[in-house]
């Protein structure tokens, strides 16, 4: 006759020595305990963790122990489902033998795989974001495809805008012409113009320089006296 209590106690002592820092007994009747399993560190030192709770059935190991995932860190819902499925498969395969160490070891390997998958997930997310960015950039360059319908719509709008622009320009030119003053109006509105030339000459004083080389000497000029002019007639001047 199998002594289930003895087998269970022997396994309990072995587990406590194997997992001294992560093994915790919760109760003696029924025997219940937890083992916290942590993955190896990933590429960026990230880890995943699961705390498993086991409770011996009365006829364990000829009966499957009760198990549950009590808590976890950095695991997705799909990861939790995979771990629970794994525990069920391992328990069925090892029925009739003490199996807690086997179950925990299987979960340990699964957590290590998950850490590796985190790297793959991140790489896939990065690629997806890059792909989305490229698609968005292509849309910016390509814009809306030109069709006959949207071209005619754009052309009609453009023509209206140009017509309005021309009307505005003509109106501004007309307004500018109305506001333009004549020379007389300028003198009437700005009295400084009356004395501007005189003021310029006064300010210049003796500083005005004349280039004499531009003029011929008076002796070189051939000037005719009025008396030498054959058409000269003093009577005409008197009559005037």
From TrEMBL:
<dbReference type="Pfam" id="PF05773">
    <property type="entry name" value="RWD"/>
</dbReference>
<dbReference type="InterPro" id="IPR006575">
    <property type="entry name" value="RWD_dom"/>
</dbReference>
<dbReference type="GO" id="GO:0005737">
    <property type="term" value="C:cytoplasm"/>
</dbReference>
<feature type="compositionally biased region" description="Acidic residues">
    <location>
        <begin position="209"/>
        <end position="231"/>
    </location>
</feature>
<feature type="coiled-coil region">
    <location>
        <begin position="108"/>
        <end position="139"/>
    </location>
</feature>
<protein>
    <recommendedName>
        <fullName>RWD domain-containing protein 1</fullName>
    </recommendedName>
</protein>
<dbReference type="Pfam" id="PF16543">
    <property type="entry name" value="DFRP_C"/>
</dbReference>
<comment type="similarity">
    <text>Belongs to the RWDD1/GIR2 family.</text>
</comment>
<comment type="function">
    <text>Protects DRG2 from proteolytic degradation.</text>
</comment>
<keyword id="KW-0007">Acetylation</keyword>
<feature type="domain" description="RWD">
    <location>
        <begin position="10"/>
        <end position="114"/>
    </location>
</feature>
<keyword id="KW-0175">Coiled coil</keyword>
<dbReference type="InterPro" id="IPR032378">
    <property type="entry name" value="ZC3H15/TMA46_C"/>
</dbReference>
<dbReference type="InterPro" id="IPR040213">
    <property type="entry name" value="GIR2-like"/>
</dbReference>
<feature type="region of interest" description="Disordered">
    <location>
        <begin position="209"/>
        <end position="240"/>
    </location>
</feature>
<keyword id="KW-0597">Phosphoprotein</keyword>
<dbReference type="InterPro" id="IPR016135">
    <property type="entry name" value="UBQ-conjugating_enzyme/RWD"/>
</dbReference>
């Amino acid at each position: 006759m199998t002594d289930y209590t003895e087998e269970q106690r022997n396994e309990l002592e072995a587990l406590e020595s194997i997992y001294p820092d992560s093994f915790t007994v919760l109760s003696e009747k029924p025997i219940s305990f937890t083992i916290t399993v942590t993955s190896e560190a990933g590429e960026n030192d990230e880890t995943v963790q699961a705390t498993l709770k086991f409770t011996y059935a009365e006829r364990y190991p000829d009966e499957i122990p009760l198990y549950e995932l009590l808590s976890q860190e950095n695991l997705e819902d799909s990861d939790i489902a995979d771990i629970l499925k794994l525990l069920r498969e391992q328990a069925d395969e090892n029925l009739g033998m003490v199996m807690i160490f086997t179950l925990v070891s299987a979960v340990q390997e699964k957590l290590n795989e998950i850490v590796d998958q985190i790297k793959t997930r991140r790489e896939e997310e990065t690629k997806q974001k890059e792909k989305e960015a490229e698609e968005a950039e292509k849309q910016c360059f390509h814009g809306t495809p030109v069709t006959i319908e949207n071209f005619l719509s754009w052309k009609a709008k453009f023509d209206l805008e140009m017509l309005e622009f021309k009307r505005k320009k003509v109106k501004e030119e007309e307004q500018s012409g109305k506001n333009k003053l004549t020379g007389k109006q300028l003198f009437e509105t700005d009295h400084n113009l009356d004395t501007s030339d005189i003021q310029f000459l006064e300010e210049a004083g003796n500083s005005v320089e004349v280039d004499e080389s531009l003029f011929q000497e008076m002796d070189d000029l051939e000037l005719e006296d009025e008396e030498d002019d054959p058409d000269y007639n003093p009577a005409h001047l008197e009559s005037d």
